[in-house]
């Protein structure tokens, strides 16, 4: 498979909007100090925070988004990027196993919409109910590095439309 170097800025990923939700533990405490203690306890089981601390055997923390020094400008979204690699779906997805996630993004927002719609429809199909509504926000991220490139291989088995066929091929 050929490798292609990419150095593009502002690629689109859609994330479920969560700005309308208060922290899940907030109702259990009365003060911000108490909330800080609960957040610290919750962080002990956070897959993302454990990976950022080097405690995920499938990820090197140097592969994750990070800020160089504590006084650096906090870049919005780094926790979302890192979560994509640390919170995985049982069985994995087309190009990642359940041990290690992947960051999916696109040059065009409608490609991201199609990707989200396909996965959401599939998950709703498992429940037998398609009555649903959701809000998504765009997160723009730079995509820089050398990556496997299948653009010249439209018949590659990993691109098979049936996940039972395509996912194992893409994970190998």
Set down the secondary structure blueprint.
Blueprint lengths: L1 E15 L15 H12 L3 H6 L25 H9 L22 H19 L8 E14 L13 H9 L1
Antiparallel strand pairs: 1-2
Question: How is this structure best summarized?
Answer:
This protein is α+β, with helices and mostly antiparallel strands and 172 residues long. It has helices at residues 32-43, 47-52, 78-86, 109-127, 163-171; strands at 2-16, 136-149.
Key features of this structure:
172 residues; alpha+beta; two-stranded antiparallel ribbon
What would you note in describing this structure?
The chain has 172 residues and is α+β, with helices and mostly antiparallel strands. It has one domain (2-171). Helix content is 32%, strand content 17%. It has helices at 32-43, 47-52, 78-86, 109-127, 163-171, and strands spanning 2-16, 136-149. Strands 1-2 form a two-stranded antiparallel sheet. The radius of gyration is 18 Å and the shape is globular.
Compute the number of structural domains.
Answer: 1
Largest sheet: 2 strands, antiparallel
Arithmetic mean of pLDDT: 87
Strand order of the largest sheet: 1-2
Unreliable residue stretches: none
Question: What level of helicity do the residues show?
Answer: 25-40%
Rg result = 18 Å
Quote the beta fraction. 15-25%
Termini Cα gap: 13 Å
């Amino acid at each position: 498979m050929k490798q292609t170097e990419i150095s593009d800025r502002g690629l689109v990923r859609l994330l479920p909007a969560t700005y309308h939700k208060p922290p899940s533990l907030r109702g259990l405490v009365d003060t911000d100090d108490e909330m800080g203690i609960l957040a610290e306890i919750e962080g002990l089981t956070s897959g993302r925070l454990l990976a950022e601390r080097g405690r995920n055997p499938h990820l090197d923390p140097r592969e994750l988004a990070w800020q160089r020094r504590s006084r650096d400008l906090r870049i919005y979204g780094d926790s979302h990027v890192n979560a994509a690699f640390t919170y995985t779906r049982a069985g994995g997805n087309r190009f990642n196993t359940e041990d290690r996630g992947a960051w999916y993004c696109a040059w065009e927002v409608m490609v991201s919409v199609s990707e989200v719609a396909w996965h959401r429809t599939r998950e709703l199909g498992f429940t037998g109910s398609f009555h649903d509504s959701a809000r998504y926000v765009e997160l723009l991220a730079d995509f820089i590095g050398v990556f496997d490139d299948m653009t010249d291989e439209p018949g590659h088995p990993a691109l098979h439309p049936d996940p039972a066929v395509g996912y194992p091929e893409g994970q190998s």
